[in-house]
Design brief:
The chain has helices at 3-25, 29-53, 57-70, 74-86, 90-103, 110-132; strands at 154-155, 158-159. With 216 residues, the protein is mainly alpha-helical. The chain has a domain at 14-132: Serine Threonine Protein Phosphatase 5, Tetratricopeptide repeat (Alpha Horseshoe), CATH 1.25.40.10. A two-stranded antiparallel ribbon has the order 1-2. Helix 2 (29-53) runs antiparallel to helix 3 and helix 3 runs antiparallel to helix 4 (74-86). The radius of gyration is 53 Å and the shape is rod-shaped. 12% of the residues are buried. The model is unreliable at 10-27 and 205-216 (pLDDT under 50).
Length: 216
């Protein structure tokens, strides 16, 4: 075989690895970075999915947002809004739902997301009304169950007058009733009083002396 032909073939074989290295080195930097971002986004997505399944909605929402930052995808934005809603973050969920409709107008879940937006708007408005409403009036103590009615106020349709004030040691006069029988202050009937005039006092006893016999 011609020695010059052999040398040319060897040179071709040696140049193949060099050419491969040159092609790899010549790849655009944004392509390599995109591949790395996709892998990192996938890691955030997997973590968010696991947290969502376990009911850790705040953690799931955070990781869905991180995955969306690396790989803007409508599914990731929708999942982040869902996680925030289930976590009770109504205002944040509303913002993400509205951005989903604005950025992805032809998304398949548009009708569902529009319903969620209206639902969250009403819920947020109710929360604001409750937070700004004045406190309701308190119930007076006399209307509480078991509380005695104050003296001098109507009870059961009848007015109960307040009893006259008495000084210490002074007896309270019994209140007359409709039948004429006085009632003591404690509520028990007082003993009957004899209203007849008193009898005249009896004559004092006289001393009996012996008659005068006329003897001196």
């Amino acid at each position: 075989m011609n020695p010059s032909l052999i040398r040319s073939r060897v040179a071709c074989l040696l140049s193949i690895p060099v050419l491969a290295v040159a092609l790899v080195a010549g790849l655009p930097a944004n392509v390599a970075r995109a591949a790395g971002d996709s892998e990192e986004a996938r890691a955030f997505f997997d973590k968010a999915t696991a947290s969502f399944a376990l009911g850790h909605y705040p953690v799931a929402a955070e990781n869905f947002e991180k995955a969306f930052e690396l790989k803007p995808d409508p599914a990731l934005l929708y999942n982040a809004a869902q996680a925030h809603r289930l976590a009770g973050n109504k205002e944040r969920a509303l913002v993400l739902y509205q951005n989903y409709l604005r950025l992805y107008s032809k998304a398949g879940k548009r009708a569902e997301v529009e319903a969620r937006v209206e639902e969250l708007k009403k819920a947020i408005e109710r929360d604001r009304e409750v937070a700004t409403s004045p406190p309701t009036g308190t119930m007076p103590s006399s209307s509480l169950p078991g509380a005695p009615a104050p003296v001098g106020e109507p009870t059961g349709g009848a007015f109960t007058p307040a009893p006259p004030a008495t000084r210490p040691g002074e007896a309270t006069a019994p209140a007359p009733t409709a039948g004429g029988t006085p009632v003591a202050a404690s509520g028990s009937p007082a003993p009957a009083v004899d209203l007849r005039p008193p009898a005249p006092p009896a004559a004092p006893p006289t001393l009996v002396t012996q008659p005068d016999s006329g003897e001196s």
